[in-house]
């Protein structure tokens, strides 16, 4: 019993140190975002200002600006990732067909081949296809990189559920598509939402891929943020980071909430 | 009755995306082997790969990137597994601490490292406050350090949580199922970790290591934002060669990329076998449970 | 009508599991597929329902060949061993699922769910979550859901095997009652011989992807066509001998093959083995020349083994028989065989 208590204590301390290492840097964002000047060697900034934060919201408010290319682009990419991952996972898990293993291998490749390598290789092809410097071109490039994450999550969950509930739905009179949509998809809803978030994050975090395929025309958060960072504008860089990180966190929390609510609704719907 | 055409229909978008991806890779590899018809280069050659090892600037990039990737991946894996083992014992509801760095883009991570570790960063100011240094310049160059310390720190901050995220579910499963049994048989905490948890999580841990190793080998953002001007990391060097006004430098870029691809492929093959054996195991169990009996 | 299967072959992962199964189930009949695990009975069920591809043969449900028909259009509904209640729906929605697929009105569905829940003794359970109900209740929900699909053919895949004995008997009674009331053609897969004999109109005994025998419960028990079938239903004593003009002669006695008849010409002369169930043999206390070897008391009955010199004969008597008749181990005793309950199998078939 005593030993058990000691274990708990060590666990607590290690977790606390880890949590501090994660949270402290994020806290600096808050301070820097509202800072005008922070001269050496003061530990607290000299004068606070809302300039940087106001600038972010001005840019976000502009119609057709970074709200579309920065947030909506990633949201659509994430949605498409989940839909495609559901389709691919079903095919890869429950059908045996020639080429299955090759495709399984191909599907995990972007996991492990860095985006910089891919973007330099594919830029010419994208130019030839007329996809370079376009929103949909960037979306396709992001999709290639976010899909493997969504696929892995959904395949894990789908193989755990197996085909048995779909089989049951089939013999009860549901056609294949109906069984998939009515039974498998709702059962995979929580993991689909996680996959959605993951895919959103992957898309939203891309810098090099967006830079090369977007050619500087498609302005996402990273494309806007990096020049501030390289030019030493820490307050603007921080404000952008804070706002966009905030959007990501909100999307994460909304998805979790949505999973819980939709689960509840599905269970008690009236026929 | 399962229709033969259904899996292919389901996989159409996957085919297109994987096709584009493979096309990108093949194009990179072709160029790295000296085949660039637009410039009239048609002869297959390994010159550019050989040069990658002979030209000092290219070779320095190679060693620098392998070094930072290896060090950061090793530290992240060990730390991640270690923290994960302790974290799964504590209460739930702290998963957001792990998720936060995963959500955070690399460019923001770079900002953190600069804000905290640069010569006028938070730590330098703290040291000054306690009179441990008298001047900014006395604080060691961590961020744009030619040994890549800033880059490694950045990767560790991003990747330790990734390792935890990647291994937590399997580790807590094993602990729940077998840890109690082992403790019941009289095994201590350390013994359980090294003799039960670690061997059973081995595949997952190795997969996590490979993913972050190859990622940090080829990722552009952190070395671009936190690296010294010399030596340049592989992707930074490759992009520089790629952007070179003389297009005949492109094969050098692609040769560097080709080396990253080779490392990635080796890891992918391994990862693929791990993934596939897991899936097959699951499917086999499923069949045993529902089909035959 | 009903179900007709002809020469059905099925392979799983390239090895043949079913080697040409033929079976016919009459309209409204309840048939059991009985066999040990791994004998292919569940595979047969899945093949009938269209969940497994077939290599050859014909499956006919209600007069139409369904080999190429999608599972949902066959009219065959399986209640699986693991029940497969949809965890994201409550009890009512689970039962309503097949009716929603048929686009019944909300009011009709509501009434039907109510009456089905009444049939399975779960009145008022509509809004319960699957996670909130017991194993036995889940079983009944699965059954109600299957019936809600209005099956032409109901396939039950070991639905009672997970239950304790009391619940199992209750569920068997419920299914038997529902079957009688609704007259749905039913195939029940089970490895429990008692359940198969008690529930079914006919029993098909399966072994290694073949049907050994398909007959009424009484016939399959007393008229087995092989030792394998006989032994599946319990211990059997074999007595070697020969038959001449309806008289069986053996070391253990001589008797008529058809008691009462003077001569029996339905059975050919030759070498035979007589199959006698242990409970069709009596023990005679006095005047025997055999030795009582063991007595195992098991409550309702007891098993006695007797050494006849060249073999051991097993006898089942009511529990306590030996004690009340003061028979104990080592005593000499004789045996009496109920001649009417003996099955003769020709010796050369057995080899």
Automatic annotation (TrEMBL), chain A:
It holds the Pfam family BPD_transp_1. It comes from Johnsonella ignava ATCC 51276. It comes from the Bacteria. It is a multi-pass membrane protein. Its main location: membrane. One of its GO terms (cellular component) is plasma membrane. This is ABC transmembrane type-1 domain-containing protein. InterPro entries: MetI-like (IPR000515), MetI-like_sf (IPR035906). The chain crosses the membrane at residues 12-32, 64-87, 107-127, 134-151, 171-201, 208-230, 236-254. Residues 67-255 form the ABC transmembrane type-1 domain. Belongs to the binding-protein-dependent transport system permease family. It is found in: Cell inner membrane; Cell membrane. GO terms for biological process: transmembrane transport.
Automatic annotation (TrEMBL), chain B:
It holds the Pfam family BPD_transp_1. Gene3D superfamilies: MetI-like. The chain crosses the membrane at residues 12-36, 64-88, 100-119, 139-157, 200-220, 252-274. It is found in: Cell membrane; Membrane. It is a multi-pass membrane protein. Keywords: Membrane, Transmembrane, Transmembrane helix, Transport. One of its GO terms (biological process) is transmembrane transport. Residues 62-271 form the ABC transmembrane type-1 domain. One of its GO terms (cellular component) is plasma membrane. InterPro entries: MetI-like, MetI-like_sf, Sugar_ABC_transporter. CDD domains: TM_PBP2. Belongs to the binding-protein-dependent transport system permease family. This is ABC transmembrane type-1 domain-containing protein. It comes from Johnsonella ignava ATCC 51276.
UniProtKB/TrEMBL annotation, chain C:
Keywords: ATP-binding, Cell membrane, Ion transport, Iron, Iron transport, Membrane, Nucleotide-binding, Transport. Coiled coil: none annotated. GO terms for molecular function: ABC-type ferric iron transporter activity; ABC-type quaternary ammonium compound transporting activity; ATP binding; ATP hydrolysis activity. Pfam families: ABC_tran. One of its GO terms (cellular component) is membrane. It is an enzyme of class 7 (translocase). Residues 3-233 form the ABC transporter domain. The keyword ATP-binding applies. SMART domains: AAA (SM00382). InterPro entries: AAA+_ATPase (IPR003593), ABC_SmlMolc_Importer (IPR050093), ABC_transporter-like_ATP-bd (IPR003439), ABC_transporter-like_CS (IPR017871), ABC_transpr_FbpC (IPR015853), Mo/tungstate-bd_C_term_dom (IPR008995), P-loop_NTPase (IPR027417). Its EC number is 7.6.2.9. This is ABC-type quaternary amine transporter. The lineage of its organism: Bacteria, Bacillati, Bacillota, Clostridia, Lachnospirales.
């Amino acid at each position: 019993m005593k030993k058990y208590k000691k274990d708990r204590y060590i666990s607590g301390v290690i977790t606390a140190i880890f949590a501090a290492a994660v949270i402290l840097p994020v806290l600096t964002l808050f301070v820097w975002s509202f800072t005008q000047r922070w001269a050496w060697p003061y530990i607290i900034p000299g004068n606070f200002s809302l300039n940087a934060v106001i600038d972010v919201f001005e840019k976000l408010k502009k119609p057709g600006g970074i709200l579309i290319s920065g947030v909506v682009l990633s949201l659509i990419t994430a949605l498409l990732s989940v839909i495609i991952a559901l389709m691919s996972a079903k095919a890869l898990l429950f059908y045996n067909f020639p080429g299955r293993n090759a495709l399984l291998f191909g599907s995990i490749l972007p996991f492990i081949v860095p985006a910089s390598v891919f973007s330099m290789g594919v830029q010419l092809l994208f130019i030839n296809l007329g996809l370079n410097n376009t929103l949909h071109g960037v979306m396709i490039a992001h999709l290639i990189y976010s899909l493997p994450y969504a696929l892995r999550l959904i395949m894990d969950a789908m193989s755990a559920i197996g085909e048995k509930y779909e089989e049951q739905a089939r013999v009860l009179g549901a056609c294949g598509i109906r069984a998939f949509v009515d039974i498998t998809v709702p059962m995979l809803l929580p993991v689909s939402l996680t996959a959605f978030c993951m895919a959103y994050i992957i898309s939203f975090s891309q810098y090099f891929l967006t830079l090369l395929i977007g050619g500087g025309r498609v302005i996402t958060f990273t494309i806007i943020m990096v020049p501030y960072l390289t030019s030493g504008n820490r307050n603007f860089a921080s404000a952008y980071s804070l706002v966009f990180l905030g959007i990501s966190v909100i999307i994460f929390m909304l998805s979790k909430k949505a999973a819980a609510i939709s689960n509840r609704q599905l269970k008690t719907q009236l026929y | 009755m399962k229709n033969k055409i259904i899996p292919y229909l389901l996989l159409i978008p996957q085919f297109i995306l994987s096709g584009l991806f493979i096309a990108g890779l093949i194009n990179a590899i072709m160029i790295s082997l000296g085949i660039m018809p637009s410039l009239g280069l048609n002869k297959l050659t390994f010159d550019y790969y050989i040069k990658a090892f002979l030209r000092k600037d290219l070779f320095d990039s190679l060693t620098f990137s392998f070094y930072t990737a290896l060090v950061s991946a090793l530290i992240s894996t060990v730390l991640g597994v270690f923290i994960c083992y302790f974290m799964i014992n504590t209460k739930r509801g702290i998963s957001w601490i792990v998720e936060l760095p995963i959500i955070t883009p690399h460019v923001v991570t770079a900002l953190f490292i600069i804000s905290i570790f640069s010569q006028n960063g938070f730590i330098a100011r703290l040291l000054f406050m306690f009179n441990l240094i008298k001047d900014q310049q006395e604080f060691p160059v961590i961020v744009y350090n030619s040994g890549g310390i800033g880059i490694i720190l950045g990767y560790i901050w991003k990747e330790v949580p990734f390792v935890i995220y990647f291994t937590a579910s399997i580790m807590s499963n094993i602990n729940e199922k077998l840890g109690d049994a082992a403790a019941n048989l009289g095994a201590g905490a350390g013994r359980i970790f090294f003799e039960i948890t670690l061997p059973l999580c081995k595949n997952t841990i190795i997969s996590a290591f490979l993913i972050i190793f190859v990622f940090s080998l080829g990722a552009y953002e952190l070395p671009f934002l936190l690296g010294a001007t010399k030596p340049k990391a592989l992707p930074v060097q490759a992009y520089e060669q790629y952007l070179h006004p003389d297009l005949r430098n492109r094969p050098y870029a692609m040769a560097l990329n080709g080396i990253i691809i080779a490392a990635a492929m080796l890891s992918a093959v391994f990862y693929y076998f791990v993934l596939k054996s897991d899936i097959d195991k699951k499917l086999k169990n499923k069949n045993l449970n529902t089909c035959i009996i | 009508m009903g179900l007709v299967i002809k020469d059905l072959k099925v392979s799983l992962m390239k090895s043949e599991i079913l080697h040409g199964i033929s079976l016919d189930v009459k309209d409204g009949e309840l048939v059991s597929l009985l066999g040990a695990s791994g004998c292919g009975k569940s595979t047969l069920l899945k093949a009938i329902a269209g969940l497994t591809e077939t290599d050859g043969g014909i499956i006919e449900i209600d007069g139409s060949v369904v080999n190429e028909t999608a599972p949902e259009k066959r009219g065959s509904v399986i209640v699986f061993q693991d029940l497969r209640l949809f965890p994201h729906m409550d009890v009512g929605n689970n039962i309503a699922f097949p009716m929603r697929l048929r686009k019944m009105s909300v009011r009709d569905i509501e009434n039907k769910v109510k009456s089905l829940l009444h049939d399975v003794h779960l009145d008022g359970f509509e809004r319960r979550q699957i996670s909130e109900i017991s194993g036995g209740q889940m079983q009944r929900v699965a059954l109600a859901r299957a019936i809600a699909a209005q099956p032409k053919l109901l396939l039950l895949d070991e639905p009672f095997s997970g239950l304790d004995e009391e619940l199992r008997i209750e569920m068997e009674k419920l299914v038997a009652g529902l079957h009688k009331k609704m007259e749905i053609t039913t195939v029940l897969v089970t490895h429990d011989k008692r359940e198969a004999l008690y529930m079914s109109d006919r029993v098909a005994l399966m072994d290694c992807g073949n049907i050994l025998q398909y007959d009424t419960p009484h016939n399959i028990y007393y008229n087995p066509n092989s030792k394998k079938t006989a032994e599946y239903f319990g211990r059997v004593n074999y007595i070697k001998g020969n038959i001449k003009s309806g008289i069986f002669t053996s070391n253990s006695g001589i008797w008529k093959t058809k008691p009462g008849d003077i001569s029996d010409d339905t059975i050919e002369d030759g070498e035979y083995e007589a199959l006698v169930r242990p409970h069709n043999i009596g023990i005679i206390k006095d005047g025997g020349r055999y030795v009582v070897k063991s007595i195992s008391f098991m409550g309702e009955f007891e098993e006695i083994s007797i050494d006849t010199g060249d073999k051991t004969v097993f006898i089942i008597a009511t529990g306590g028989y030996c004690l009340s008749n003061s028979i104990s181990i080592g005593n000499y005793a004789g045996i009496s065989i109920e001649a009417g309950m003996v099955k003769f199998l020709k010796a050369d078939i057995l080899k």
